[in-house]
## 1
Amino acid sequence: EKGGYDHFMLKEIHEQPKAIRDTYRGRLLRNEAIIKMAGVEDNMKKFLNANRIIIVACGTSWHAGLVAEYIFEDLARIPVEVEYASEFRYRNPVITENDVLIAISQSGETADTLAAIKLAKSKGAFVFGVCNVVGSSIARESDAGAYTHAGPEIGVASTKAFTTQITVLSLIALRLSRAKGTISSSDFRHHLLELEMIPKKVEQALKSDAHIKKIADIYKNVSNFLYLGRGYNFPVALEGALKLKEISYIHAEGYPAAEMKHGPIALIDENMPIVVIATKKGHYEKVVSNIQEIKSRKGKIIGIVTEGDIQVRDLADHVIEVPESLDSLSPLLTTIPLQLLSYHIAVLLNKNVDQPRNLAKSVTVE
Ligand code: F6R
């Protein structure tokens, strides 16, 4: 059932090319240059008239929501707020009939997310669900939605659910940008082409597995990790840190790279590994100067870079390459080495990768 892999998590990491392809299949029609999603099409007026989109989710799904915030604002020019479902529902939020609420949940059963939906519906907002489990409570409770087609995710640490959530949310953002006219037809086509190429590029990124395992072996005994990224890759830094915490029990924090100097920089010394996402298109020069700041404090740098990069390679202790893509789609690639890094560290430490202590696959308690 693990298909020859040692763990479900590793199997699911490797399933991502297929999961992403399955998620855009039938929706991304490149030859016709259209995106077809019934749940969006049928409710286009609601989306186009929305004052804002509120995204609610928990954990990894919340990180996918943060990536979506960047895409929706960048491409579709719709204001977005991303909320932890648990905070949103308890703080007497301002919700109106002109709000669209997008709930993201792999299991579709997360209690706080479900409660946030019910609250939004009671105030007249339109609720759109992005779930993986068909027929789940959140899917049923939503007014409309789009499934991720990741297939069953057994490993408690979410991997393919995350990348397929980003895929669905990218499709929605692109569809809305086209409808709003905030994207040119040539840019739109370019995005479709790039999205279609992601599965192949994920395959390419997965080939760094053995190299990543060696890096994991070097750092497996440290007690703290820092993850830094900017823009589209800031949420990826959060997700990388969460993955490491969950399955290896090593303390890790994700930060926007520029926030480092407002506190976390105090932690940096020769014992601190810092994973920095430094792909070519995402504020590259700014990230390089953050890397220089880390280096002058003797932190150990693991750079996630675009293939062929030389500048970061010169500064970093290790680099892991991912193929080049659009900035907006880069999280689908930069996430891969971070998943593998935490996987290998956890395995080397003999941890129960698929069922980490204290965690459950679906959190149905509040
Ligand atoms: C992280 C993880 C959790 C879930 C969170 C939300 O690897 O699995 O943080 O992402 O519990 O779960 P869903 O998406 O099912 O609502």
## 2
Amino acid sequence: SRAEPLLSVRGLTVRFGGIVALDAVGFDVARGHVCGLIGPNGAGKTTLFNCLSRLYRYQEGDILFEGRSITNLPTHGIAGLGIGRTFQNLAMFRTLSVLQNVMVGGHSRSSAGFLASALQLPQVKAEERQQRERAEEIMVFLALTPVAARPVGTLPFATQKRVELGRALAANPKLLLLDEPAAGLNHEELDDLARLIREIRDRLGVTVLLVEHHMGLVMGVSDRIVALNFGRKIADGTPAQVRDDPAVIEAYLGAP
Ligand code: ATP
């Protein structure tokens, strides 16, 4: 149903040897929300993203997407469900054009389409055309049309980051995981990013889970914020509630 959370993380526990990277973490992400995930270095944010992408196994707990457990899904099953992500260190083909990179993203949603295209099956033409149209819409949305033919590696950093967003959006995700999108951006680029994240939510209807160190950005765009420290959830609420939470202030500033 529409009322059930899009994503539900329950009692998630991840250990690396003696280190408890996540300790019984639970929270929900409502459809149509931007949910911020904050916490000092080593809090467990990246580990959580890697669990959501099925890159890490968890020892305890469960992750429900649209009410169904993803625990036993293979990594490649995640995109098909509608979970897309970007990476802290951009993951693109630097010598391929912007258009090609965005189209590669479109393939990841349907492994059948990717296979058909690799095998040059007849349905490829229609599928390619659809994917190209989708890629072109996304490039308009991200103001990338003027650089569509340029190799990604030749573009300014902020533009490369928009291409990575485009690659993730081309798969038509219901949930988009953004891993530190603000890193390395200047003031003006940060404003553009904030506007884009709101538009991804409001115009594309995509739910966003945002890992971010830049407090201005995360406070400005999030409907809801979950704070982690040493693998534990220490706060969960509106930006104002989380900003004023004594446990959050202590986690960032050290002991009072
Ligand atoms: P940052 O903001 O610095 O990216 P983070 O909140 O993303 O930090 P994680 O990278 O999830 O934190 O790390 C949580 C804890 O788990 C840390 O103590 C880290 O050293 C540990 N950890 C994460 N991944 C691994 C791994 N693959 N092997 C061993 N330890 C790991």
